[in-house]
Amino acid sequence: MATATQVTDASSAFQPFLADEESIAKPLETTQCAVAVPEKIHRAMRYSLLAGGKRVRPVLCLASCELVGGDESLAIPTACAVEMIHTMSLIHDDLPCMDNGDLRRGKPTNHKAFGEETAILAGDALLSLAFEHIATKTTKAVSPERVVRAIAEIGSAVGSLGLVAGQMADIQSEGKEVTLRELEYIHVHKTAKLLEATVVCGAIIGGAGEGEVERLRKYARCVGLLFQVVDDILDVTKSSVELGKTAGKDLASDKATYPKLMGIEGAKNFAARLVAQAAEELAHFDARAAPLYYLANYIANRHIEEQFLPFFTKI
Amino acid sequence: MATATQVTDASSAFQPFLADEESIAKPLETTQCAVAVPEKIHRAMRYSLLAGGKRVRPVLCLASCELVGGDESLAIPTACAVEMIHTMSLIHDDLPCMDNGDLRRGKPTNHKAFGEETAILAGDALLSLAFEHIATKTTKAVSPERVVRAIAEIGSAVGSLGLVAGQMADIQSEGKEVTLRELEYIHVHKTAKLLEATVVCGAIIGGAGEGEVERLRKYARCVGLLFQVVDDILDVTKSSVELGKTAGKDLASDKATYPKLMGIEGAKNFAARLVAQAAEELAHFDARAAPLYYLANYIANRHIEEQFLPFFTKI
User: Fold this and answer.
1) Is the previous residue joined to B38 through a cis bond, with omega within 30 degrees of 0?
2) In terms of C-beta distances under 8 Å and separation of at least 24 residues, what long-range contacts does A175-182 make, across chains too?
3) Are strands B107-108 and A107-108 parallel, antiparallel or unpaired?
């Protein structure tokens, strides 16, 4: 089990990823969505893909690859691909007929900046580029078997039993009484599935055994749900300027959220339990798991109180 | 070079595909978009995927696989995947902010039947399912190298330098004077790229050599362009009932089309030249190319006059 010292080491080891994103920003910048003809579609893709964001998914993917003994560079194309898919899901979710968002990452949403038709097409292009990117950019040091398995994992996380299922259930739940179980279905699919695929694919690319893959899958499910619970909490506690997107939308649209069903304190306690479960899965790995501990905690704390920090040092 | 007799044989050999689609309808029916939770998204996906259509792409994919010596069953997952992507492109193209179509394959368009948000999500799900389907359903008899190559080829055909580029250029051309060169750019990207990937992937899966792949690529480019030229001709010559979609839309929206730039006769002559070029590439293959000859001709003739039939028997 990792000690507090190891965790502190990891915290500083992990900082470069979150600070200047050296490992991810450059590869993303040089993906095939460099400015080309037709310019407008490429500008729209780059606008959202390179808008910053926390890059939590790519960082998780690289950390997972290293944890199982792979060199992180092997997983860079997959990490970029997952960020493209995440970006596509934000672009499409923000559309007028979906969540009708005006702000994202502190800037006008893609359809506000480029028009609805371009936003839809930019999402489509990012989704297909993601698969193409894994297939063409993964180095020969990774066997094609692993590449095919990663593509299958990501495809399943995005499709009608994954991210799309979550968004569909979310839309259908609006204006209805939603149970905690239904809310969990939405978040597991809308957020956790892609995070799970991200971590699992990092591990597959890095050459993980089946047992390792399954532990990391469970870890990622907790972190994925945690991510959404914290997002729900932030929506009711922070302003649009602080969030970089329209705040209070969930409340205004009477959307089901964890704070609504559990109260703010209940939601915060649930988040703490998820961090603990995630940590339990990581306890079976060696000190290389430290960045993943750190990330679970980072997600739990990103803009809210320091309440999770004491927990973190207890691991 | 194939003789007239061989071609006639092929014509009857090919008929079953076009008539009852045995090779494609069943695999499509049993793809992962069986009715599951959430039901609405799966019903929307099936509504468009199983709406009939000519299944030209999957048939081309299987024929190309057989032509290079592969068993057609090897290419069935790829053939289904291409049909999913084609279906997704129709669903998204029909959206109100794009072509705003009401009818498709004789039925209300997806967004008319299920709502705009479901139509967008059904498209997204079909696109990711396509890649997942190739990755998970292709039999072990096909090497993972070939699977990865097919995924890369299809990804590139759909993305911002393929289908999406064509749709973007198409949207941007509305209300503007478009040259013949610009029109060709639109159609090569909007239609021919995916057809090219379809044929090329069939060949890759079937184990084609590089020379065979390149000849089939050229064949498919001609057929892809041919497809669009004929579509443009039909838009001005047929009624909505005959087409199964809204007719005269291109004319009403003052869209650039081949008949508009070349006149109907000019467009028909161009179609005939494309059939001839396609046939030239096939002349380097043996009698197994006959279905591909037949298909080029079938596309040229589908609802219009019999003028191409004499050409066909001359091959």
Assistant:
1) yes
2) A175/A254, A178/A256, A178/A261, A180/A261, A180/A262, A182/A256
3) unpaired
DSSP code, position B307: G
Instruction: Give the whole-angstrom CA distance, residue A13 versus residue A2.
Output: 15
Which of A124, A138, A173, A184 best probes binding to B when mutated, by most B CB atoms within 10 angstroms?
A: A124
User: Looking at residue A114, which CATH number applies to its domain?
Assistant: 1.10.600.10
Report the complex ipTM: 0.88
Cα Rg of chain A (Å, integer) = 19
Number of domains observed in the structure of chain B:
1
The per-residue pLDDT for range A174-233, each reduced to its tens digit, is 888 999 999 999 999 999 999 999 999 999 999 999 999 999 999 999 999 998 899 888
Strand ranges (E), chain A: 103-104, 107-108
Among B118, B143, B159, beta carbon nearest to A128: B159
Q: Which of B128, B143, B168 sits opposite A155 (nearest CB)?
A: B128
Collapsed DSSP state (helix, strand, coil) of residue B246: coil
What is the extent of the structural domain holding B137? 4-314
- On the CB side of B200, CA atoms within 13 Å amount to 25
Instruction: Using alpha carbons, list the distances in angstroms from residue A258 to A167, A176, A261, B46.
Output: 16, 15, 5, 33
State the amino acid at position A198 in one-letter form.
Answer: T
Amino acid residing at B276: A
